[in-house]
Amino acid sequence: MSAASRNLRTGIIAGLVACFMVGMGFAAVPLYRIFCQQTGFGGTARIEEGAKAPGDTGKMVTVRFDANVSDKLHWTFQPEQKTERVAIGARQLAFFEATNLSDKAVTGSAAFNISPDQSAQYFVKVQCFCFTKQTLQPGETQRMPVVFYIDPAFLKDPDNAGVSEITLSYTFYPVDQAPAQG
User: Fold this and answer.
1) Distance between CA atoms of residues 62 and 82, nearest Å
2) CB within 8 A of 15, min separation 6: which ones?
3) Residue 45's pLDDT band (cuts 50, 70, 90)
4) Is residue 78 within 8 Å of 152, Cβ to Cβ?
5) pLDDT at 73 over 80
6) Over 50: is that where the pLDDT of 135 sits?
7) Is the confidence at residue 177, as pLDDT, over 80?
8) How far is CA 159 from CA 42, 61, 87, 154, in A?
9) Where does the pLDDT of residue 35 fall: very low under 50, low under 70, confident under 90, or very high at 90 and above?
10) Residue 112: which of 99, 135, 128, 134 has the closest Cα?
11) In what helix (H) or strand (E) does residue 15 lie, and over which residues does it extend?
């Protein structure tokens, strides 16, 4: 094999490797988001739109609701209840309220997190305002629901043995600045 054909083969292989690496760079964010949603890694809740809750186990846990707004978004945002005792395995409904304090229509997107991290994989969101962008007109207030349940497998995980409270935290950002979930 001549030096020219070896160089050509090496160049083709290097080009293919470079194309593969660029492709993996573009795929990394969505793949990481999917990984986080499936495993609860980094405090990301499982998302199972339309899922049916398995049913009340008779065990309870406190869910604390936390609401924040980016300083670049002129909104108020808060949960209707700060804490709620919920039955593990039962479908739950919580509401948050957002108000646009500006004089123009503004679109926001909510990023969320669950803590403690080891509990996130058992926090299942069935329906959430965080799945879509929210547009509020000047002065408009909107009531936003979250439907969720705590997977009964939470009770069998030894890492959750001492967990009596799970925090669901949201932060609203202007859409052009919303971070990736996960």
Assistant:
1) 10
2) none
3) low
4) no
5) yes
6) yes
7) no
8) 15, 15, 19, 9
9) low
10) 128
11) helix 3-39
The residue assigned the tokens 């329906």 is: 127
Say if residue 131's pLDDT is above 60: yes
| Listed residue (51, 24, 23, 25) closest to 37, CA to CA | 51
Q: Which residues fall within 8 angstroms of residue 44, CB to CB, at 6 or more apart?
A: 36, 37, 112, 113, 114, 120, 181, 182
Is residue 43 classed as helix, strand or coil in its secondary structure?
helix
Q: Rounded CA gap, 60 and 171, in Å?
A: 26
3-state helix, strand, coil in the chain (%, to 5): 30, 40, 30
Residue 118: exposure state from Cβ atoms within 10 A (0-12, 13-18, ≥19):
middle
Kind and range of the H or E element at 34?
helix 3-39
Task: Considering only the C-alpha atoms of the chain, give the largest distance between any 2 of them, rounded to a whole number of Å.
Answer: 76
Higher pLDDT, 175 or 24: 175
Say which residue the tokens 């979930």 belong to: 181
Residue 32 has pLDDT above 50, yes or no: no
